[in-house]
Amino acid sequence: MSSEKKIKSGSLTGDQKQTIIDFMESHPHLAKGKFSASFTNEKATNLWQELTASLNSIPGSIKEWKAWRRTWHDMKGNAKSKKVKLNFRTTGGGESIATPLKKLDESLVGIIGEVPIIGDPRIMESSVSFDFQKPSTSTT
Length: 140
Known about the structure:
This protein is mostly helical. Helix content is 51%, strand content 0%. Self-associates forming complexes of several hundred monomers.
């Protein structure tokens, strides 16, 4: 077990969430976490540190850049879950049982994109058919 104690900071505020979203909208490579020859881990780290300085200057939670990165991943995951729930229907094809997305979640879904959440609509799901045959019982 680590000898370091976790420091409890303030709660994440709406202003901090909006700052993260605005930053990610202007840095799509960072938002998607896809590295390439032109977008390296070093560039990503520098952007996370830049965002951290901005977020920590806003009243609310104060974290290291890796913790802010985890917050971003959590925000994306939560928005994905909410969006997926909107696609589920009640038994019999009725209304969705989920509440509509809030503005921040809609912004997150816009950054993430629909395909990672609900799949590519151009790709048809293959049908699977199982044909079970009763084993023959022969007496020899």
